[in-house]
Each structure stands twice: as structure tokens, then as C-alpha cells.
Amino acid sequence: MRILLFGANGQVGWELQRALAPLGEVIALDRGGLDGLSGDLAHPDTLADTIRAAGPEVIVNAAAYTAVDKAESEEPIAQTVNAAAPAAMAKAAKGVGALLVHYSTDYVFDGSGDQPWKENDQTGPLNVYGRTKLEGEMAIQQSGCHYLVFRTSWVYASRGHNFIRTMLRLSAERESLQLIDDQHGAPTGAELIADITAQVIPKVMESRERAGLYHLASAGETNWHDYASFVIERAREAGWPVKVSRSGITAVKSDRFPVKARRPLNSRLACTALESAFGIFRPDWRVGVSRALREILACENLGARQ
Ligand SMILES: NC(=O)c1ccc[n+]([C@@H]2O[C@H](COP(=O)([O-])OP(=O)(O)OC[C@H]3O[C@@H](n4cnc5c(N)ncnc54)[C@H](OP(=O)(O)O)[C@@H]3O)[C@@H](O)[C@H]2O)c1
Question: Please, which residues bridge with residue 173 across strands?
Fold first, then answer.
């Protein structure tokens, strides 16, 4: 199987390079491209030629404009990368008969209620990022190509900047921390997303009627305050120089932290469709977070010794 991967250096893209490798030849492109193939989603007009030249059976798009607050003032580029580029990929995928795998977000929903969102629930993005991501997934669905779109939430990885690393740094610097406790969702590891993608692709290649839109998140739920407390307490147990005390981590509501882009309060995703279509078991969010934390701490300790 020949697989063309876009966004190879992002959190999910990096893990996909590993997880997709046993399926076949992976042509991994970052925005700089490779051997005359363009990986830059800011230029959607170049993507059809790249796809035709690479001749993949599967195209996996892990690239996205993910700067949620910045997108409020940079809508044109967010729209190009998150909507126009996936639309161009979908058209080209249909042309060459390839399966297109793409990722979307809980931010397509308005965050109302307290029930996990199902795939066919009414969307209603609150910010530019969510609107452009929704436009991208709709363009794929309307293109007539075979597709898998995974909506996921609160993505982290042991590599790169993310919430776990930020909490480690702040917990060592500050005596008190305030964190939001009214946004609910499931932190989902890039590793898990990549592994599930690699499990599902062969099944969809065998029976294409199983292609479609699926929610993909870790099991369980939390909020940012409890997520941070979990990370910091585990780090304290592991010997990380935590300055903040347990009682110094306080919970506040979202309106205490004004940000450019409004976030949904309810980011829970119902993943039963994915579980039943592909026999997937989803581990609790604490399993992946604990593992990523151990990896990050091991790197930090190594760095400190060098
Ligand atoms: N992060 C989250 O919390 C979250 C939540 C829900 C859904 N998702 C979705 O999950 C998918 C993977 O996200 P992630 O967390 O892996 O994001 P990420 O770590 O921010 O990676 C995004 C990748 O896209 C690349 N990219 C941005 N603009 C590009 C362009 N013009 N051309 C080519 N590549 C470009 C970035 O490249 P550079 O490194 O060169 O900038 C980066 O490697 C995305 O579809 C995202 O919308 C993410």
C-alpha cells in the first residue's frame, strides 16, 4: 500500500509516520515538500499534481491551521489550510480512487448541554478555527471521494509544546495556579489517534462501506483544572520540583480568562460508532497522559543531566 501523508511533523503527523509504517510505503510531507512534491496546504492548487505524481492508495492529512486564537485575525489562511486544501485533496483523491483520511475537531460544536456529541448532531462552531474545520470536513463529504474523517479533542503528545509541558513548567515556577473547570472533554494522545487510524485504514480498504465520519477520543472525561491537577500530582510523585501546593491549584470559570476565540464548554465526543464499526477499545484518558508524562519527564531528566 502506498500512503501519502501531509503534515508529517505535527503532533499527530509525527505519530502517523510510526504507526502507518507497517502498512506500506509512506511518503511523508511537511510544508517544505519532498522531491518535487508539494506539502504546503497554503497553496491548494499544487496538491492535485502532488497526489497524481505520488499515486497513493491512501492520503492522510494531518496538517491543519491549529492556532485557535490567532485564527480570529487570520481567517483567510485558516480557511485556505483547513477548508480549501482538504477540498482540493478530496477532489484529487476521487480522481485517483484513493481513500482520504482527515482529522477534525470537537470545536465544530457549540458546546451546549452536557451529553457527548454524536456524529450527526447539529454543528455550530463558536470560532473561526471551528468554522474552517467544519467547512473542510463538509467539502470532503460532498466531494464523492472515499473518506475517513476523525473528529478528535484536546490533542497532546510527548513531543512539542502542549498542555502537559506547560503545566510542568508552571508548576515548577509558581506557588499558585488558576485553571478552568467549566470546559469538559477528553485529552487524546496523538499516539492513540495514529494507532487507531492505522488499525482502521486496512478495514476500510477491505470494505469501503465502513468509510465515513467518526468521533475518536480517549474514554472518560475531565476538565482543564482536574487534568492539570492530575499531571502535577503525578509529576510531584515522580520527583519533579513542583512549587505549587495541592491547594494552590484553584478552579475558575472560563470567563475569568478572556481569550480571542470562544471555546465550547461541552467537548465530550460519543465514540460508540467507531467502537462498534471497528472493534476499537478506547483507553481512559489517564492512561495515555500518564505515559506521555513519563516520557516528557524522562527527556527533562536527561536534559538536566547533560
Ligand atoms: N491540537 C488539538 O488539540 C486538536 C484538537 C482537535 C482536533 N485537532 C485536529 O487534529 C489534527 C492534527 O492536529 P495536531 O494537534 O497534530 O496539530 P499540530 O501539532 O499543530 O500540527 C499541525 C501541522 O500542520 C502543519 N501545517 C500548518 N500549516 C501548514 C501548511 N500551510 N502546509 C503544510 N502544513 C501545515 C504544521 O506545520 P508546521 O510545524 O510547519 O507549522 C504542523 O506540522 C488537525 O486536523 C487538527 O485540526 C487537533
Answer: none
Rounded to an integer, what distance in angstroms lies between the CA atom of residue 217 and that of residue 239? 30
- Structural domain boundaries enclosing 28: 2-158+188-217+268-283
65 lines ligand 1 (CB under 6 A): yes
Q: pLDDT tens digits for 95-134?
A: 999 999 999 999 999 999 999 999 999 999 999 999 999 9
Q: Which residue's CA is minimally distant from atom 40 of ligand 1?
A: 31
41 lines ligand 1 (CB under 6 A): yes
Q: Is residue 250 part of a domain?
A: no
- CATH number of the domain at 123, please: 3.40.50.720
For cell 489517534, the residue is: 193
Q: What is the pLDDT of residues 150-191, one digit of tens each?
A: 999 999 999 878 899 999 999 999 999 999 999 999 999 999
Helix (H, G, I), strand (E, B) or coil at 62: coil
Q: How far is the CA of 7 from the centre of ligand 1 (A)?
A: 7
64 C-alpha vs ligand 1 centroid, how far in Å?
A: 4
* Rounded (10°) angle between helices 163-173 and 224-237: 60
φ/ψ (deg, to 5) at 6? -100, 145
Residue 104 inside a domain? The answer is: yes
| Catalytic center residues | 129
The CA 39 to ligand 1 mean position distance, Å, reads 13
> Do the domain assignments include residue 242?
no
Q: Is residue 132 part of a domain?
A: yes
Q: Mutate which of 31, 153, 289 to test ligand 1's pocket (most atoms within 8 Å of Cβ)?
A: 31
